[in-house]
Amino acid sequence: MSKIKTWSTTAASNNAASPDGWPENMPPSGVNNSAREMMAEIREVWNDKEWFELGSGTGTSNATRASTTSITIAADVTSTYHVGRRVKIYGANTGTIYGKIATTTYSAPNTTVSFTLDSGTIHSSDTTPRVWVGSTYVGPSTPVIHDTSLGTSQILPPSQGAVKTYVDTQVTGQDLDFEGDSGSSSVDLDSQSFDIAGGSGITTTASGQTLTVAGDDATTSAKGVASFSSDNFAVSSGAVTIKTGGVENAELANSSVNYGGVSLSLGGSDTTPAFNLTDATSYPASSLTGTIGNSQVATGIDSAKIADGTVSNSEFQYINSLSSNAQTQISARLVAASDLSDVASASTARTNLGLGTIATQASSNVTITGGSITGMSTPSATNEVSTKGYVDQAVAGLRNRTVAECASTANVNISNALEAGDAIDGVTLVEGDRVLLKDQSTATENGLYLAVASSAGAASRDPEHDTIAELSGGMIVVNQGTANDNKIFLCTTDSTGSIGVTNIVYSQVTPSNTGTVESIGITQSGSEFTISGSPVTSSGNITVDVNRIAATKIGADTSVSNTEFGYLANVSSDIQTQLDAKSTAGFSVAMAIAL
Fold this sequence. Notes:
- It is built from nine helices and 32 strands.
- By secondary structure, it is an alpha+beta fold.
- Among the domains are: 44 residues; 62 residues, no CATH class; 117 residues, no CATH class; 44 residues, no CATH class.
- It is flat and about 150 Å long.
- The C terminus is likely disordered.
């Protein structure tokens, strides 16, 4: 970054430490460093004499972003940042953008400078962008000063001679490069002409400022533009085809038309044309000429050569012994019934019978796809078919063990919090994981859900547990989690409710150290405790009063008797203290008596 903008226009103020200034009594090395710094800065400025980073003009003052098109500078810089002057602005996220000064207003302590930018804006994260102003130099180089005296912002041109010289120099040095389907070339715009030549069937004509490219009429000896009779030909997207029936017999000259080994000779007014049969694989080189009769056809023509060749020789033999029209005989033997009104259409027949797709897999097995069998009675024998209602009643009340990967501990946003990568109770979800929601603010949302892919949005209920009947009485084992690991929850909601209406409630059944214990009785043994309030219900209490605890149940070895505990009665202070005091006095008395 240029340091010139940090230097003051007041000489005495440029006394910063070397190499940024010239302080008093600086050593020779400092003088050298400052002089070299000035040389480098001057050289940097003259490398791009059109742009200058002025700052405040008298010392360091960074530009501060005020908006997408304005800055502030902590000084009065209206004289140098004047309206119309070109600017160059740079920021790490802004990049380099150009424009001109639109307004300059000073209100102590800041000057606000707004810009009309050629393109782009000052990015919000570039809080201190670098700002250069254009040079006032108006020589023959590209100028960067705007003149607003003309009523609109115009770039001041160099002298008329300079403009002409510049334009002439630029034009003289320019070529027009061009390429064809093959090859490439160029035209010197100052000394050569660009010729557009016609080709086969194409003629070009230049007149004034117009170049005409025209197609020549086609002839028998030259390419060109041709028209086609709509009676004989069809033309679409440039493709020409002979119309069906477009060539009549009268338009054909006497000739032969060959079809592989068969040639048809058209002989003028001959109404009985001759056929020449030549098949190198079945006939000799000589041809048969004349009317084709039984004598000209070899015994047995291969079935593949008749019609489209899909009927085999064996199938042709089925025609043998037919006594009349085959379809007439088939139709006569078909008696249409009301339920099989269209035997030829299997789908219609199944529809009339109320069946879906029926496929016979074996002599005694039938598969039905797309339909159902109804109207069966409740089975009574072992081998009778069971209805859905019978099975549902048989398994009513039975629920198997269902494993959920994890369970909620609070309300979960179903619309976006059950995606792969989200965490529930410390478990990172994988797409397809079954999750138990039991703590929803809206209890109707509780139940089992399947985690969806990342960023897929809302999760759906587990399709195996998406009705109240399927959820009710279900025992859910939680596979992992910080709070719910290996816990079991029971759905206590009645099975007669419906999804979205009925609250779905789960209770932890095991392992549990919380909750309500109901109908537990506590009995009293001996007279050491008095117990009341038994049994305990969800709102009851247990009251335990201590009457008397036997001495043998107190202490580590239980060797103190009830009588010995009674000696503690009437003790007025710490026993050991009293014993120690009595011991000392008693020893003195005993010695006195002994003497």
